[in-house]
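Q: Two folds, back to back.
A: First:
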Amino acid sequence: MAPAPNRRVEVLRSATLREEVHRAVLPGGLQVYVCPKPGFAKRYASCSTHYGSIDSEFTAPGEAERRRVPDGIAHFLEHTLFETPRGNVSDLFARNGAYSNAATSFNTTSYLFSSSQRFYENLALLLWFVENPAFDPAKVEKEKGIIAEEIRMYQDDPGWVGYLGLLESLFANHPLRIDIAGSEESIRKIDVEALDRCYRTFYSRSNMILFVIGDLDPAEVYDFVEKNSKGGDAAETGGGAASGRAAVSRYYPKEPGEPARPEFRREMEVALPKIIVGFKEVDIPAEGKAFLERELVTEFMLDYLFGRGSDGFQRFYEEQLILDDFSASFHSSAGVGYAAIGGETPRPQELRAAIGEEIARARGGSIPLEDFRRQKRKFMGSFIRHFNSLEYIAGNYTYFRFHGVDLFEAIDALEAIRKEDVEARLDSLFDPARSATSLVVPKS
């Protein structure tokens, strides 16, 4: 199918990955990405907005007033969109033979489905319910009870309690320390007016990305989206069409370098203690090439130190300090970041000491060149294998696009990682003065 007149389609390719993505900016600034996967039976689509739980203070495009909305409203809005005049969206997708879901993170909200049949019917449904919210006051009040119950459920989840306890310990002011769902008190303040304001501010087409992947013709997808979505209007035009962001000013409080407190501890009904050791960073790149490189080098370094094939993991396992859930990861958002290392353990204090010793050993010496090369081959192999997953490609492509870079750039950035980069990252991230610990232990 030939491209529509005046539609500019950019084709992004990775020779190493043998993948390509077609990109077009449709009326109103909506970025649509199509990744053709010939021969795949399953098709997958996600519609995402660059709006998450940390975006609670902002100035909307065309306005001068700086607004503060209740914590948890991004997650509340996600729930509200699923309730439509036609019924619950999950039921509507199920009738079409599709799986559907949605998720709110610290900085994005995504709505998605996968299906092997009736794909375009499901795509029309996705576009319709995301673009046509129904803010019924009675349903909003009812949703408060549902989300309050969800909040209470997570407060009984040891894994989530420990994770949130770490964030509250690391960050004194930044909204990363606040539960994505908010609190029972904060959601009581949410009303139709606040939901409508946040929707109009952050669900503009120029702040959103539609990613479609499967055995599909990109031109056919673009034609379908143009015919089955609202398209641009006067309110949608303006800044952000090229970058995928509306001209929203977002505000985050200044965060000190030191943790808010050294330790969080909670007794719960658990069989074994769970410990997470965290390291905090502030004033780090929020987007662009510097953001991508920091993410990749940090994940590389954490996998080298604590991944399943690492000496550290094997030593902890042989000493029966850890179970299979032990992990190490790095997350960053809006100029701050943190590493989290830990899992269930019968001896939490010994594991905390062992993690510290492993870090001190690595910071105090040089990484053997052959170990570095072996880790690099392993890390790149794992990265490439992820491209067998439609969900991985869609989720990560969208994530990096919202941060101003292309996922395909990651393979070149991985190739360019040097031993010296990893050693420097070891020194910069693992500052003991910026560390905090979260402990969930069995009730006495």
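A: Second:
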Amino acid sequence: MRLVLPYAILLGAIAACSPPDGSMYTLYRRSVLDARQRLHVATFDAAESEQYNQENCSVVLEQMQRRPGVTVQYWCEKGRFRK
């Protein structure tokens, strides 16, 4: 029991620092083998504003699309990763 309390306090502190789902953005891409399949690339969930996470997602998206030979589609969606 004495070990459980420090872990509970730590988990509570981590949860308090986590941004709400509404401020997160997730970067996805299409599969090379199946264009209907969406694949998770990254989640932008900094404890900053929604705009901050959206802009970071957009910057990475643009960099990924500019790579030579890239033929798959990348896009950002608001929220956590969803299949």
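Q: And?
A: Strands lie at 25-30, 38-44, 74-78.
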